[in-house]
Recover the amino acids of this structure.
């Protein structure tokens, strides 16, 4: 700290305030101290968690659209695990790809954080390398990069799980609703779930016409529009696999508006098992959202205590939850079809 103070031309107390995140420092002085610390390669000492025992330590969480139910549940898990260890969570909500790129440049340079958890954001160009060389540990949740610890699910297996359930009930004409495979953020979960859907249909010898695959925004209103188109086809599907519960809700709304009975005339399967899915009786592929946040926090704690130096990737299990929106198509009187 003395070296940083001398290089920046300030007192040690000023350096300490900057490193602790105090607001009682001007922006110009803060920037000067941060530049000096970066140029000198300053690293805060790491004592074991048991030895530290002080509050006020900070973990940054970088997450797109934190108010989405799946993101919110993950954050709940992170906070519940970190709080007993005296850590506070600083949430960085991302609403655009430009904002994501800026934060992934800014945060690795920060001197106030003890760790970082990145949720769902794919890392591009040198972003992963920048995080690998940050002065604090980074853990990825629902995304991955070589060399960084991560907590993941197998989205392809999840798409296959939902599709096998519908095939086992006797459905053959099955549609798929998701967000576009090429999107501004670079999210890949929907496209991977589609891959699982298509592979399972192919294994069963079932065709997937282009007319039965629809893409739209990650909104139940957009999915409602897509499902309305699907359910208005001359030979409409008897079932829909939605890439998320949010989109599955839109499909259920479309069926209701068209007077199509679920599950008698249409089966719908979602993905995630957010709280709303249980309330609506939605059959879905459950991923352990809260637990995934807990495990990401655990990996940060382990990195800080130096118990694990090698990157650790955990693949969490998925579970099919069958509720009231799926049934056999046998004997259906399908409107608009022969």
């Amino acid at each position: 700290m003395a070296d940083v103070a001398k290089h920046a031309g300030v007192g040690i107390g000023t350096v300490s305030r900057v490193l602790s995140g105090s607001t009682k420092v001007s922006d110009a002085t803060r920037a000067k101290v941060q530049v000096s610390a970066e140029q000198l390669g300053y690293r805060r000492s790491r004592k074991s968690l048991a030895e530290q025992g002080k509050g006020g330590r900070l973990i940054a969480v970088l997450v797109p659209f934190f108010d989405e139910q799946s993101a919110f549940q993950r954050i709940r898990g992170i906070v519940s695990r970190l709080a007993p260890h005296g850590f506070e969570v600083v949430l960085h909500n991302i609403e655009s790809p430009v904002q994501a790129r800026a934060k992934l440049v800014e945060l690795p340079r920060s001197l106030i954080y003890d760790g970082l958890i990145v949720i769902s954001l794919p890392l591009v160009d040198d972003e992963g390398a920048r995080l690998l060389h940050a002065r604090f540990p980074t853990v990825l949740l629902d995304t991955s990069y070589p060399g960084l610890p991560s907590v993941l699910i197998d989205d392809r297996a999840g798409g296959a799980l939902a599709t096998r359930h519908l095939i086992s009930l006797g459905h053959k004409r099955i549609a798929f609703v998701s967000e576009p495979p090429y999107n501004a953020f670079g999210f890949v979960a929907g496209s991977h779930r589609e891959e699982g859907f298509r592979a399972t249909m192919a294994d069963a010898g079932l065709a997937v016409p282009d007319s039965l695959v629809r893409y739209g925004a990650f909104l139940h209103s957009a999915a409602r529009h897509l499902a309305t188109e699907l359910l208005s086809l001359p030979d409409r599907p008897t079932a829909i696999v939605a890439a998320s519960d949010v989109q599955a809700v839109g499909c259920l709304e479309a069926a209701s508006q068209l007077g199509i009975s679920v599950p008698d005339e249409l089966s719908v399967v979602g993905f995630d098992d957010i709280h709303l899915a249980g309330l609506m009786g939605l059959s879905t592929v459950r991923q352990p959202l809260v637990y995934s946040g807990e495990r990401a926090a655990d990996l940060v704690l382990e990195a800080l205590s130096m118990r694990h130096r090698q990157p650790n990737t955990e693949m969490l299990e998925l579970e099919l939850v069958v509720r009231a929106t799926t049934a056999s198509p046998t004997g259906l009187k399908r409107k608009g079809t022969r």
About this structure: The chain has a mean pLDDT of 89. The chain has 13 helices and twelve strands. The longest helix spans residues 289-304.
